[in-house]
Amino acid sequence: ISVSKVLPLVCLFRHGTAARAWRTLTTWSPVGAAFNARVHRRLDIFHQNVGLFGVPELSCVEGFEVVQDRALQETQQLVEEACRCPPGVQTVEIFDKLSDSLCRVADMADFIKVAHPDPSYREAAERTCINIGTMVERLNTNVDLCKSLKDLLDNEEIFSKLDPETRRVAELFLFDFEISGIHLDKKKRKEAVNLNVKLLDLSNQFLMSCHMPNRIEKRALPEHIHQHFTKDGNYIQIGGLNADAPDDLVREVAYKVFLYPNENVMHILEELLSCRDKLARLVGYESYAHRALKGTMAKSPGRLYSSEIVSLLTEKDFEMMREMKTKLNPRNPELMPWDHPYFSGVIRAERFNIEPSLYSPYFSLGACMEGLNGLFTQLYGASLLAEQPSVGEVWSEDVRKLVRSHLSNFITNVTCQFALFLQAVVHETEGLLGYIYCDFFYRPDKPHQDCHFTIRGGRQLEDGQYQLPIVVLMLNLPHPTRSAPTLLSPGMMENLFHEMGHAMHSMLGRTRYQHVTGTRCVTDFAEVPSILMEYFATDYRVISQFARHYQTGQPLPQSMVARLCESKKVCGAADTQLQVFYAIMDQVYHGKPQNRSTTDIMIDMQKKYYGLPYVTNTAWQLRFSHLVGYGAKYYSYLMSRAVASMVWKQCFYKDPLNRETGERYRREMLAHGGGKEPMLMVEGMLQKRPSIEDFVNALVSDLDPDFETFIMDSEG
Hints:
This protein is an alpha+beta fold. It is built from 31 helices and 10 strands.
């Protein structure tokens, strides 16, 4: 990192607290400037290719086989070591090394297979994922390996003396064995392995199909709407729902064509659900949902249900949408599923004048990154530094690299702070928290959804150092233009804060074991830090710290922020009810097998838990990619939102920039990753153990519009 980028950050200490100096800056900070500057292609003919993420072997596509084989060889050595090891803490440490060796390859390959622009890299990464995944399933049915762990857990005298995190990690490793059928006879263990291998293949097939476009002959559609879709000879390709299209017919056509049933994909999904059910029952669970929810905050499927209050509020939202549709299209007033996202947006815009183009000049990418940097500095004493990637380190020239450092370690005088700060960046001393690669700009080959990936988990090393976490954040933001930097809509800004919440979870976690580092925790807790960041993103006290016009430097008016916050609650009940429908449908799919198709189940659940009619010859579930990664756990978004709501209102609402509260949040909830029972972390932060009723009430309370506050702010 260059001195020119370090020095301005260090100068903050010279004038008092970092927070006060940051607020009064009249130019972009180094982080803000780095993200508002255009990326220029570098000529690096004199520098050696360091390989993707600094892994030298990955300077070429053949390197995947090299790192894979090395990991598999190391795995065999560690398995032998674990089987020889007497019961004790060393047993858990060896298991975690084993997990780390495989995850460092598998997680990186899992990212590259969806993000790299070169098909040869994606294909090589895909093969690596399959090979490592197959090895993991074989290890999970290795009787001798399991026995070495079980000997530890069965030795009460030794096990009771282990620290709580080590005991939990040992129990989690044993759980992995149990759900893979380690307790079964040899024939059934082999069946479990084969089912897991088959599930990997089916999952990949289903994920690939979820985003494949459908096509229809041009002559089947009115010519005036052809321009809204991709033309392919005599056909029109439709690769999405076009939910924001003002033309009702465009939305209707997109919905009906994109969601038209594909018999092959239908078979893949039903086979996927059948294999999951067989595996769950084989290893002793009542259903796949029971297996998936073990150890979560929800505990079991029977505790999840819908709220009648939300349903009542949803009817009011749908009525508002019907009125708006009737006003705009009197000849076709019936509210249909393709209308929900569009008219909820129209109502928000009309009632509160929420036009994204009015807000985006205040939300340049640099300003938003500066805001995140300031927020983390004030809450946790952590800062972001932009660092120039080495040749071959990243997969696209648009990718930015961030280093997160912990400022609270740098004490004494200013000169010493500068030396240590620079040393922390270069030599990875204890002041450095980890690395974040930011792949923020739209490319046709990128995944369409904003997401994050853990490339390497943090863990304590034998020499006393800490293995620094590496994560990637992926967004699809517009590229900068000649006249303006990248400008974010309010929704894009909120998504950025959300994804950075995941990164923060990984960066601030300091678990002893990588098996439970950062976001490697139960699913219904993993979304809490990211959703909590959405509350910060819509609080004026936070927004006012960074939202300023990229040309004039003027701050975003408070009345505009008030309108934005209140507009989010409009039609919020309908949005929440839609999530309830998705969550319950997911639970039913993974519950007791039913003698009916996934479409019939979907139709039934939509009628009971959504309220808008089913459209004949559509199969929305075939586009529901979350069934793979969140199978039986889609409810997690709702539960995590409820927890985040409670944490925000009870702890941060009065003062969202309070360092003491930020430190307590880090200590109680972020530091442990999955190394502590999730409800204990929530209880530690809230000073009470919330019930399911508390979760529901938290969701409902977020739907109550504070019109009085809005009117006062608007008039002011």
